[in-house]
Amino acid sequence: MRRLGSTLACGVSLLAPLMLLPASAWAQQADRDVARQAAIHPVSTAADMRLWLSRVPVTRDFPADFETMLRGQASLYVIEMSTAPGCLPCGDLWTKLLAFRRRYGWQVRTLGPDEAALRSGRLGLPWVGNPVAWVRPLADPGRMVPIAIGTDHGANIARNAWLAARMLTGARAAVGVRAMSKFTGIVASTSRQNGARR
Description:
Elements: H1 2-39, E1 41-42, H2 46-54, H3 66-72, E2 77-81, H4 88-104, E3 107-110, H5 113-123, E4 132-137, E5 145-149, H6 154-168, H7 173-179, E6 186-187, H8 190-195
Parallel strand pairs: 1-6, 2-3
Antiparallel strand pairs: 2-4, 4-5
Helix pairs in contact: 6-7
Signal peptide: 1-27
Keywords: Signal
């Protein structure tokens, strides 16, 4: 009995630090879960997606060098996006990226699922399998900045691409991130989200 008591006391003393740590870890996880749910907006129809986008502010003010800089640096950058079959926001984002390409001359490409998962995992993004658009220098595949998660207005995508290019050429990341809007984060559909938690 004494041995059992000392074993229990020893076990409790070993677990005591772990009992304190999980409380803060659980709180952080709960905060992340709340933030994730707030940032993900399940849509099942194109009308749902348009309704959500109607709530997202559209950038209207741009710096004087905005268009010149985007066109002038088209040969330096590529925008790559993840995609998935039957994903409404993927199609919407791709259409907007094609319009961006026509206007500014940047290359746009899709990523395979393995590369998309790897990139999202590096940044801890929970939206693997749903659209994420990244700007990266053509000469440096290891440096990239996410510019859209889900989909967004064309003006916001252009603004975020401009900011990403500035961040990749030396502007302080904190300045660029503050200037970017919150990612829209629309997922493919309500049923898909419920069936595939990230």
